[in-house]
Amino acid sequence: MKRYFLHLAYNGTRYHGWQIQPDATSVQEELEKCLSLKLGEKVSLTGCGRTDTGVHARNFYAHFDIEKEIKNCDDFVYRLNIFLPDDIVIYKCWEVASDLHARFDAKSRTYHYYITQNKNPFHTHDAFYYYGKLDVEMMQKAAEILSEYTDFTSFSKLHTQVKTNNCKIMEARFFEENDLLVFEIKADRFLRNMVRAVVGTLLEVGRGKLSLEQFRAVIENKDRCSAGTSMPAHALFLEKVEY
Question: Do the bridges between strand 180-187 and strand 108-116 make them parallel or antiparallel, or are there none, so unpaired?
């Protein structure tokens, strides 16, 4: 058996996330269908993570095992991209060691959440429009508190099948990019809906609805009901995965 890695990106608007689900279109399903057809054998993909419904990925990695050798990876990528829908693109395919794992060997993932405070028809599908003043300085101070904790039960979707709600946050900050306010968060792993729940709670701080002490209490309560609203998925992007 030979193992290959894929580097890809996708617009998640019309997909129910990365992972295959019954009676729902997923990115994984589209890719596996394409790969199986082109390689002439059933292909199962393992992704570097599981993005939720409607979430995008600028950089995503997956691996698969096959019996045959791909003679020309560049040509293979070209042929795959012709067959794939316009909202999925493969950048690169290459052979790797048989024990290299797309998910378990990833050291960190970085997400961006995009916010616009001006109605803009060109950001309808890739940024959240928020009208009103935000105290970004206080939001930044709250974001810095996140790295002091590891248990993020308060920001996790309820009843998920994970062994632990612990994550190591390496960076959490706000910055401006053109006319957008961007929240960047980097961690070793993320819980389901975690980033969108974190952003929703940080916006409560920015609106003056939560103090820094109250934000800290939200984390320590380990209760999803005490945190803010989960923000819309269309403004969330998986930006980077590091190995």
Answer: antiparallel
Cβ-Cβ contacts under 8 Å for 31 (sequence gap 6 or more): 6, 8, 45, 62, 84, 88
Place of tokens 């103090």: 211
CB neighbour list of residue 139: distance below 8 Å, 6 or more residues apart: 174, 202, 203, 205, 206
CB 167 within 8 A of CB 188: yes
E strand or H helix that includes residue 51: none
Cα–Cα distance for residue pair 159/165, rounded to 1 Å: 11
Enumerate the active-site residues: 52
124-170 pLDDT per residue, tens:
899 999 999 999 999 999 999 999 999 999 999 876 667 789 999 99
Specify the residue for token string 């829908």.
85
**3-class DSSP state for residue 45?**
coil
Instruction: Please tell me what DSSP assigns to residue 229.
Output: P
Tokens of 97: 């060691």
Domains and CATH numbers, the chain: 2-96 (3.30.70.580), 110-242 (3.30.70.660)
pTM of the predicted model over 0.90: yes
Q: How far is CA 240 from the centre of its chain?
A: 9
Q: Give the separation between CA 166 and CA 164, rounded to whole angstroms.
A: 5
Encoded tokens for 91: 């950048």
Cβ contact 206:134 at 8 Å: yes
Give the total residue count for the chain: 243
Residue range 95-120, pLDDT digits in tens = 999 999 999 999 999 999 999 999 98
